[in-house]
Design goal:
This protein has about 270 residues and is of the alpha/beta class. About 25% of the residues lie in helices and about 25% in strands. The chain is globular.
């Protein structure tokens, strides 16, 4: 049985620092077989449509935010975990590339630097850039969620809709919601169940200045998969307001752990 941790929507430098630290610490203790970050690792506010025509657009923050993400996410992750890490490109990650394509297409045609895998130096950290609909487990693919149109305001239903279209179970981010939504078809005992799994987010919502009408229907969390030879079992891991969470009966985070098997590993 293999274990895969799936993280989405960190959106550095607007991440929830406690939650991200706790998730990275957990990965260091748990040592899963693979970690997948499925997009929007970096927010890149400077070239966003929200910043067009404002002072922020001229702040030259792309390299700054890339270096910040390396220092505060990739380096700490690699300090505790040397297993396989794959990252998908989210709609925020692609902002520098899209900005260049729309504002300076003659340069974009030859540019490689402003692609997020190069801005974040994936090669330096031994990280693979994963394609959309990446098959990481039997019957499951990973996407960020912006690749095809359509959003549902009910947690889990956007992923379920995309899973139904693809004919395979889908894990995704993008919605910032945390839920698993199954859908079963068939008759006379010949049934097939596929799942849509939205793995939440790890950002600090207080830093989301575009939420002008109050709090959004977002849930902090990440995903965990138990992967066998023929199938995989998904588990949603909610992250509490203090950045802590529970996996397999053990609490990770601000609340001190004691006598558990994971805590024992830390002490050793």
């Amino acid at each position: 049985m293999q274990r895969v941790v799936v993280i989405s929507d960190v959106q550095a430098p607007f991440e929830d620092k406690r939650a991200v630290k706790n998730v990275i610490d957990f990965i260091g203790v748990y040592q899963p077989d693979m970690v997948i970050q499925i997009g929007d690792l970096v927010d890149y506010p400077t070239p966003s449509r929200w910043s067009a025509g404002t002072r922020t657009e001229f702040e030259a923050g792309v390299i700054r935010d890339s270096e910040y993400t390396q220092k505060n996410f990739l380096e700490p992750l690699r300090a505790v975990y040397d297993g396989g890490v794959g990252i998908l490109e989210g709609n925020h990650d692609e902002r520098p590339r899209k900005y260049l394509e729309s504002r300076a297409p003659a340069l974009a045609a030859e540019d490689k630097f402003y692609r997020f895998e190069n801005l974040l130096e994936f090669g330096k950290y031994g990280i693979a850039k994963l394609p959309p609909y990446y098959p990481f487990a039997p019957g499951w693919v990973a996407i960020h969620g912006h690749e095809s149109p359509g959003l549902n305001q009910v947690a889990g239903r956007t992923a379920a809709m995309k899973a139904k279209k693809a004919g395979v179970s889908v894990v995704m981010g993008h919605t910032h919601r945390l839920a698993i939504s199954p859908e079963t078809t068939g008759f006379n005992g010949k049934l097939k169940t596929i799942y849509g799994f939205e793995v939440g987010h790890l950002m600090d919502v207080r830093k989301a200045g575009y939420l002008k009408n109050g709090p959004a229907n977002w849930q902090k969390g990440f995903g965990l998969f138990y992967v066998g030879k023929y199938a995989a079992t998904p588990q949603a891991i909610p992250v509490e307001d203090d950045g802590s969470f529970v996996v397999e009966g053990e609490r990770f985070g601000e609340i001190k752990r004691s006598n558990g098997r994971f805590a024992k590993k830390v002490n050793e």
